[in-house]
Design a protein that fits this description.
By secondary structure, this protein is α+β, with helices and mostly antiparallel strands. The chain has four helices and six strands.
């Protein structure tokens, strides 16, 4: 199986990238999250931002509008909202699908690689990936500050 860190996806500017490329050599842990701006869990952006400020951690957000239409905005609107309300500086990628037939290859791999397999059920599902590509899955109710404890 391909290491999830090397699966390509599109960033906010339309460029192809990977988690490994976003993290660079200083990253030992990646946290991947499907995010939404109008969700009861949107407050978790604050904890994700704090997590992203830890040495060796790269947080990457993937906006998704598949759950209750809670991420209807454009890329510009999403970035403006997260910056103004939560001072987010971690990278947000292009809006994608994270479940179903059109799920992005990265999320297909993440859901298959974790112990808790199956479709993502809601916004703010989290995947912690180490440099070897090992994946640990967390749900929407798991707070960002508890992921690396």
């Amino acid at each position: 199986m391909t290491n999830p860190l090397d699966i390509g996806f599109t960033d906010m500017d339309g460029n192809e990238t990977t988690l490994r490329a976003l993290g660079g050599e200083s990253t030992s842990t990646w946290v991947v999250v499907n995010v939404a701006s109008a969700c009861g869990f949107t407050r978790q952006y604050a904890g994700l931002q704090t997590l992203s400020e830890q040495d060796g951690v790269t947080v990457v957000g993937f906006p998704c509008n598949q759950f209750g239409g809670q991420e209807p905005g454009t890329h510009e609107e999403i970035c403006a909202f997260t910056t103004e309300k939560f001072q987010v500086t971690f990278p947000l990628m292009a809006k994608i699908d994270v479940k179903g037939d059109d799920a992005a290859p990265l999320f297909q791999a993440l859901t298959a690689a974790s112990e808790n397999t199956g479709n993502i059920r809601w916004n703010f599902s989290k995947f912690v990936i180490d440099s070897e590509g090992s994946v640990t899955r967390f749900g929407s109710r798991d707070e960002p500050e508890d992921l690396l404890a």
